[in-house]
Specification:
Structural class: alpha/beta
Number of helices: 15
Helix content: 25-40%
Order of helices and strands: HHEHEHEHEHEHHEHEEHEHEHEEHEHEH
CATH topology of the largest domain: Rossmann fold
Strand order of the largest sheet: 3-4-2-5-6-1-7
Radius of gyration: 22 Å
Distance between the termini: 41 Å
Largest sheet: 7 strands, parallel
Number of strands: 14
Number of domains: 2
C-alpha cells in the first residue's frame, strides 16, 4: 500500500517524501479513506502508530484555501497541540494551508490574529472555549472537528468543555475521534455528536517481537538502589523513568543527580516553554535520562527511547501500555522494566490480565545500597501515592475509587491534571498471574 493508492494529491505525497514518509501505517491505511469519504470516524490506536497523519493528511486534502476556519483539532495538552501543528505543517509544505496553534499560558492577541487567517486551528479545549466565549472565534463554517487523544481528554476532565464546543459547531460537521480506548464517556460523545461513525482499529499494544518486558520484585527501601544499579548496568541509549506523581518525579530526579546520574524532570506543573525545551533536548540526547509523570506517556514527540522504567505504577492498566509504548517504536527494539513493590501487585495483576502481555520475572541481582533523601516538602516519598495505605493499613482511608479529574476548574486542568492518580485498596496478599 502506498499513499498514491490512497488518492492523496501529489503535493502532499511530495511533502511526505521530503520527510522520509513513503508508506502508510496500519491506522493510516484504515482511516484515510474513511475521512476522505466524509464519514464520521472512531479510530482506536496507540501512541506512535501514526494517528496524526491518519487524520492530518486527509484533512489537508479537503481544505479549501481562503475560505476561513474549516477544521478544529482539539488536544488534551499544550505539547500535543504544538506537536500536531508541526506535523500538519510538514504535510502541507507544498499546499496553501494556514494553521493556528492555540493554548493557555500565552497572550490572546497573537492567537486571535492567527485564527483569523487560519483554515485549521489546533487547540487545547480550555483556551479555545475561552476564545469562543469572548467572541474571538466562531464555528459557523466548520466542516470537521477532530478530537485527538479523546480518552485522555475525558480522563483529564474536559468532557464538559468538549460538549460546549461541539454544541456550537454545525450539525452536519464531520467528527473524527482518535484515542486508545473507548470509555462510557467516549460512547456518549459518539452517540450524541456523531452520525453513524465508521470504526478503524489498529494493534492493541506494542509488538512484543521488538519489546522486551520484565519486572523485578523489590522492597520499597531497596527500589532506588536497584534503579541506580540497573541504569549503570543496562546498555541504554535514551531512558524514560515513569513515576506516579510530580513529587515523586522531582524527588527521584534530585536523588539520581546526587548519584552522578544526569537526569531531567518532566511533569505538568513545569512552564510550557520549559517542558518543550526539555523534550527537545532529550530528543538530542541531552540528557539521556528523563524522569517523567503521566504527561510524557502520551502525545509528546519523544523519539528513540531504548528503555522505559516503571518506578511507580499507575492503577490505570491503560497507562502501562502507553508508557511501554514509548520504546520499541518504528521497528526498533526496546526494553520496559518495572520495579514492583508488594503494594503494586494488584495493579500489575490487572495489567497482565487485561492485556496478556509477556512480562517475565527478572532474576534477583546483587546491588550496592545507596541512600535516598526524602524531600520534606512532599508528604509522599518516591515510592508513590499509595504510601498512605502502608501507613494506615489496608481498608482505611479514602476508598472512594478512581478519580477522573472531572469537575476541576478549567484553568487548573492543562498539564497539571494529567498527574491525577487513581486510588485502589491495597491488597496485602496478592496472587498475581505472571510468567514466573
Amino acid at each position: 500500500m502506498t499513499f498514491e493508492l490512497l488518492n492523496i494529491r501529489p503535493e502532499v505525497i511530495r511533502a511526505l517524501k521530503d520527510h522520509g514518509i513513503t508508506s502508510p501505517t496500519k491506522i493510516q491505511k484504515l482511516a484515510i479513506p474513511i475521512v476522505l469519504s466524509g464519514k464520521d470516524l472512531v479510530a482506536i490506536s496507540n501512541t506512535g502508530s501514526g494517528k496524526t497523519a491518519a487524520f492530518g493528511i486527509p484533512v489537508i486534502e479537503k481544505i479549501q484555501p481562503n475560505k476561513g476556519l474549516q477544521v478544529l483539532i482539539l488536544a488534551p495538552t499544550r505539547e500535543l497541540a504544538v506537536q500536531i501543528s508541526a506535523e500538519l505543517a510538514k504535510f502541507a509544505k507544498h499546499v496553501h494551508c494556514n494553521i493556528a496553534t492555540v493554548y493557555g499560558g500565552v497572550g490572546y492577541e497573537p492567537q486571535i490574529r492567527d485564527m483569523r487567517k487560519a483554515e485549521i486551528v489546533v487547540s487545547t479545549t480550555g483556551r479555545f472555549l475561552d476564545h469562543m466565549q469572548q467572541g474571538n472565534v466562531g464555528l459557523k463554517d466548520i466542516t470537521c472537528v477532530v478530537l485527538d487523544e479523546a480518552d485522555k481528554m475525558v480522563d483529564m476532565g474536559f468532557i464538559n468543555d468538549i460538549e460546549r464546543i461541539m454544541s456550537q459547531a454545525p450539525k452536519n460537521k464531520q467528527v473524527l475521534l482518535f484515542g486508545a480506548t473507548i470509555s462510557d464517556e467516549i460512547n456518549h460523545l459518539k452517540r450524541k455528536h456523531m452520525n453513524n461513525p465508521e470504526t478503524a482499529k489498529a494493534a492493541a499494544h506494542v509488538k512484543e517481537d521488538f519489546l522486551e518486558q520484565k519486572y523485578y520484585d523489590v522492597q520499597p527501601h531497596e527500589k532506588f538502589s536497584l534503579l541506580v544499579h540497573l541504569l549503570k548496568k543496562e546498555d541504554t541509549d535514551r531512558v524514560i523513568i515513569f513515576c506516579a506523581t510530580r513529587g515523586n518525579v522531582e524527588s527521584l530526579t534530585r536523588n539520581l543527580k546526587d548519584q552522578g546520574i544526569r537526569a531531567e524532570a518532566l511533569h505538568g506543573k513545569l512552564p510550557q516553554a520549559k517542558r518543550l525545551r526539555i523534550v527537545e533536548n532529550f530528543n538530542k540526547g541531552k540528557p539521556e535520562i528523563l524522569v517523567a509523570s503521566a504527561v510524557a506517556a502520551r502525545g509528546l514527540d519523544i523519539k528513540y527511547v531504548s528503555h522505559v522504567f516503571n518506578y511507580g505504577l499507575s492503577n490505570d492498566p491503560q497507562e502501562y501500555v502507553h508508557r511501554v509504548g514509548r520504546t520499541a517504536r518504528a521497528g526498533a527494539s526496546g526494553t520496559a522494566i518495572t520495579l514492583l513493590e508488594p503494594r503494586d501487585y494488584e495493579a500489575f495483576n490487572e495489567i497482565l490480565h487485561r492485556y496478556h502481555m509477556d512480562v517475565k520475572k527478572a532474576d534477583k541481582v546483587q546491588f550496592p545500597k545507596v541512600a535516598f533523601k526524602v524531600n520534606k516538602n512532599f508528604a509522599r516519598n518516591a515510592a508513590g501515592p499509595r504510601n498512605n495505605y502502608a501507613r494506615r493499613g489496608p481498608g482505611r482511608g479514602n476508598n472512594r475509587g478512581p478519580r477522573t479529574g472531572r469537575g476541576r476548574r478549567r484553568d487548573d486542568r492543562e498539564g497539571a491534571r494529567s498527574e491525577s492518580t487513581r486510588v485502589h485498596k491495597w491488597n496485602r496478599n496478592p496472587n498475581f498471574r505472571s510468567n514466573r
